[in-house]
Amino acid sequence: MSTGANPRQYVISIIFIGVASVILLRLFFLQNFEPKYKILANDIAIYKKVVYPPRGAVLDRKGKVLLSNTVIYDLMVTPRNIPKNLDTAQFCAALDIDKKTFINIMRRVQERNIDVRQSPFIEQMSQEQAARFQENGYLFTGFEPVERNIRAYEKPIAGILLGYIGEVSPEMLKRPRYSSYRQGDYAGLSGLEWQYEEVLRGQRGVHYLERDKFNRPRDPYKGGILDSQEVSGKQLELYLDADLQEYAEKLMANKIGSVVAIDPQTGGILTMVSSPTYDPNLLRGHDRAKNYAALYKKPTRPLFNRATQAMYPPGSTIKPFTGLVALNVGAIGPNYGYGCRGSYGACSRAIACEHKDAGHAANFRLALAHSCNSYFCHIFRMTVDYKSFASVKEGLQTWHDYYNNFSFGKATGIDIPFEKGGAVPDSNKYNSMYHFNWNSCTVVFVGMGQGELLLTPMQMANGMCIIANKGWYYTPHFVKSIGKNPNDTLLRKYHEKHVVLNIPDSTFNIVQQAMEDVVESGTAAGAKIDGVTICAKTGTAENKAIVNGEVIKMQNHSMFVAFAPRENPKIAIAVAIENAGFGATWAAPIASLLIEKYLKDSVSVKRKAMEDKMLNANLINKYVFTIDSVLRLHDAAVYQARQERKWEADSIKRAEEFALYRGWIELQLKKLKK
Amino acid sequence: MTSLRKALFYRIDGVVLLLNVMLVTVGIMAVFSVEHHTTDLSIFMMNKNYMKQAMWFGYSLLFGFVILLTDSKFFSSFAFLIYTIALAVLVITIFAGVDVKGSRSWLGVGSFRFQPGEVAKIFTSMALAKFLSLPETNFKTLKDKMIATAIALVPAVLILLQKETGLALVYFCFFLVMYREGLPNAILVIGFSLIGLVLASLLIERKALFVALTVLAVFIGWIIRIPLRRRMAPRIILAVSFLFAVLFSQVAVPFVFKHVLQRHQIDRIYSTLGKEVPDEYDKTMVAGEDKKINSSEYNVLQSKIAIGSGGFWGKGFLNGTSTKNQFVPEQHTDFIFCAIGEQFGFIGSAVLVLLYISLILRIVFIAERQRSVFTRVYSYCVACILFFHFAVNISMTIGLMPVIGITLPFLSYGGSSLMSFSILIFILVRLDADRQALIR
Q: I need a surface site. Which of A101, A213, A327, A497 has the fewest CB within 10 A?
């Protein structure tokens, strides 16, 4: 055939090589000099997923779960992924909603969001909805149930101390504590949830996932080497006794007031009730705001923590401390007696005493057992006027220092937020009240726990710990250990032993003896428990309310403080019931039942009648509602006035800013003209 | 004549077979890398495409073995018969084809489906080779040139009727074969000039192009001024081609764009050129629709993202975030090159391009060492088909050409494609083994 090589084979080969070279050149530039494709590839394919670990659980002293987590499902929708032929009727049937609701929700979702983004369709599906949806889930592309953890309170108790979580507010985000939070994150808003937020929430994990073109996360990016693992929140073990707490809440039902019980040897809080209580499960999930508003509007104010924030005049329950100071200062001896005949007349106005018989205040023991007002008013005066002090002012100051050491007049420092400190008057207070013109007679009422002296139930219970321990206490607290570690740094301050001045044991013995007599033969005889020595003191605190500018004297608060047993004390307790009457009638039996329940695990049969009486009593006075509405009107007026001031300030500020802005613009224009 | 006495095994071309096996292996790996997820329980899952592709590879080797055992005269003897049958099947497909995305190019027999247009390339090559090797054929005559062109283009027309433009375009590569066998040089000049003219009329503004063409004509006239002065023919050719170019760019192109082409075709062409569709051709305004990113532009963008993000060294095997997560459409078939580009970067892509070009040049070399015209023409057919597929496919993934549905030989997933390319190669190897004999 042909001789020699055909030249056209070279032409063809050159065309082949030429085209391949063009392709190689284009590839070279595309892959080496166009970095935008790398950025685009990462943008479209890498998905940063923030993983929220489960929050730590909260257990009681016996390991019973008080607070943990449960899984719920939110139904999320990505409008763009919904196929056009979605069977709406079937979809609505599966979720048990009507078509109108469906259309309304879809419209809302589309108004709010771009239709490629996932947004909630139904928050917190019911169990049935979730189950039925998942049966037919494959039919409904574009809809996806998303798992979410929410808090679960095992029993409807202890809401006030456990607290609740909610979305962080923009104001919170400005604080350094929440610097690592983002809008939409959850954080503890009150109680232990607030206090131990850092421990409970754990550590968020960040996972980088590859996603496919349907935005579904697939494999971990680069095998997960960039990921940070989430760390579960630690659990809190409390001193709280769930059974005792439940029992206390039952006893306090239909009463306004609070109960605080502390283990004197550790400072651990066994029970804290602020009555009326509420079901903490109301304050979780997406109904929280609604339920919160409803609770907030209740006249009995269940959200107000009366155990740490309500300040009551302690009434006669302060008398052991009045005695303690008087004895320690040396103003009286244990055998000091006062001839009370039913009133104290040493000062200008006579102070009534419950007892008229001679010798009921023949010595300290008898006087405390019978709660003689005259006696304690008198020894208080003797204390502040004691000869070793230069003046009544120095005397009162010494007394004030003692009380401060008992942690009266300042917050005890428990581990839930917003605790109030009560009030213990000092000479400055009286100087300003009475223009330096006062003496021991002017302030005599504080000796019997009235007047300017105000304590929280928490402080009263802590005071009992001091007497029970003969002079020392640990700051009351809830948390025994964090994640089984009792020596966590957060708990360090609760392991510090506070010693109250240098009061000798003998003085405490005198007071304890007298308090034992209160139960054995005195005002709180009904609180007696077989086989347990209880040291206690009743109190009946006078109180007033201001309604429409009028001072109204209301029914007395029923108070009771106690600790038991006298040797090796296990429980110190304070009970306050507002406007219920004598301390011995209501507060004392309740405290006694609680002590029995705690020490003996059950209440003896012969006290059943008393228990029933306590459980069924309704001691909420009608005028609570009147006072509440008046207070709310007052609050609303104050709020309104404050808002108006704020608006005014705002408008002034805006006007100023506008003027500055105008000036700036004119300046710029001038510069431009030049 | 010594080599004929050697056993068949020693006469087959190992280089071609080796390159073939290498490319298919790369292909299976590429499909695997696109489909595999770390959550997969096992690598050997029969429902996965890469396993199917491996299975097809096995079948193709089996088939190739049968071909190697066939007498080489069989292919030339039955070339026309098989070609006729193939044409008949193509006609049947137009009417009985399965509708896949608007085209009717697939034929279903039971659960088995195949694309006759893909396989018809083999038989067309054989028929063309047979015709050119007939002793009575004289390729210098116009009549025989027409017949050869018809043999090449009839299947293309039938495939065009099946609305599979990409496959039909492949048949134009036979012109390169016919060029080797004696079509005039002018065909290349005219061909390239036409391509240049089309590109210029799309890229350059119309009035500027008119000026440019005039300048070009004057420039050429000045260069060949001596023959122009002496003879008539060059003058006429120059004048006619100038007139044609002006008419083409000023009248024909706007007409076609305004009245013939569909909106998606215009979008495709301009997105390849990397330009916005000019207002005068923009049909979205007329239809009153909102302007959306069209799908081919999306495909090419995703494909370019995948390849471009590979960089010089690539992201590494199984680390292709774009291809693994299905951002590139059709990525295991037409866009399989993205998987290579993303995971193995420029290095991997260049090696692949070199593999292809060595295979193609090896086939050209084989063609030129034949004694028989049949084998030579057939070899050129194979080389040109491979080249066309390879060049167009890779060009479209990197945005050098509009997206037309053409597979990457040996790499793209698909039984029809893999089988037809393997058969092409094995027949070539079988014919080459008898290169000392005369096959008619």
A: A497
Please tell me the predicted confidence (pLDDT) of residue B294: 56
Q: Which residues pair with B109 in a beta bridge?
A: B112
A608-616 helix and A587-600 helix, angle to the nearest 10 degrees: 120
ipTM for this model: 0.89
**Among A12, A34, A219, beta carbon nearest to B38:** A219
Residue A347 lies in a domain: yes
> Mean per-residue pLDDT for A206-225?
73
Residue type present at position B32: F
How far does B253 lie from chain A, in Å, by closest CA?
A: 26
Is B346 close to A19, i.e. CB distance below 8 A?
Answer: no
User: Which of the residue ranges A234-238, A669-673, B103-107, B195-199 has the most confident prediction, judged by mean pLDDT?
Assistant: A234-238
Gap between the terminal Cα atoms of chain B: 18
Q: What is the DSSP string of A142-195?
A: TEEEEEEEEEEESSS--HHHH--EEEPPHHHHHSGGGTT--TT-EEE-SHHHHH
Strand partners, A543: A554
Provide the phi-psi class of A138: left if phi over 0, else alpha when psi is between -120 and 50, else beta: alpha
User: Tens digits of per-residue pLDDT, A45-79?
Assistant: 777 777 778 888 899 888 888 888 888 787 877 77
Q: Does A27 contact chain B (CB < 8 Å)?
A: yes
CA distance A99 to A466: 66
Given this model, what pLDDT does residue A1 score? 43
Contact B308 A37 (CB under 8 A): yes
Inter-chain CB proximity B305 and A222 less than 8 Å: no
Asked whether residue B416 is domain-assigned, the answer is: yes
- pLDDT at position B286 over 50: no
Min Cα–Cα distance to chain B from A141, Å: 18
User: Are B416 and B328 members of one domain?
Assistant: yes
- Structural domain includes residue A2: no
**DSSP label of B252:** I
| Structural domain for B197, as ranges | 184-260
Among A1, A31, A43, most B C-beta atoms within 10 A, so best to mutate, is: A31
DSSP state, A358? T
Task: Please report how the helices A319-329 and A505-520 are oriented relative to each other, as an axis angle in degrees rounded to 10.
Answer: 150
Query: What sections of A406-448 are H helices per DSSP?
Result: 427-434
User: Looking at chain A, which residue has its C-alpha nearest residue B307?
Assistant: A31
Inter-chain touch B176–A15, beta carbons under 8 Å: yes
Chain B nearest C-alpha distance from A47 (Å): 11
- Tell me the residue type at A8: R
Q: Are residues A154 and A165 in the same domain?
A: yes
Q: Is residue B223 part of a domain?
A: yes
- Is A37 within 8 Å of B305 when comparing Cβ atoms? yes
Is the Cβ of A17 closer than 8 Å to some Cβ of chain B?
yes
Check CB contact of B401 with chain A, cutoff 8 Å.
no
User: Does residue A1 fall inside a structural domain?
Assistant: no
Contact (CB<8Å) B361/A5: no
For Cα atoms A334, A337, A338, give the angle at the middle one, nearest 5 degrees: 145
Taking contacts as CB-CB distances below 8 angstroms, the residues of chain B near A225 are none
- Chosen for mutation from B303, B305, B335 (greatest number of chain A CBs closer than 10 Å) is B305
Residue of A nearest to B388 (CA): A16
Domain final residue, candidates B171, B205, B237:
B171
| pLDDT for res B401 | 83
Query: In this structure, are B95 and B151 located in the same domain?
Result: yes
**Residues whose CB is less than 8 angstroms from the CB of residue A105 and which lie 6 or more positions away in sequence, other chains included:** A121, A122
> Given this model, what pLDDT does residue B295 score?
60
Q: Shortest CB distance from B353 goes to which of A23, A34, A220?
A: A23
- A44 contacts chain B (CB < 8 A): yes
User: Is A591 within 8 Å of A573 (Cβ atoms)?
Assistant: yes
Q: The whole model's pTM is what? A: 0.63
Same domain, B98 and B161: yes
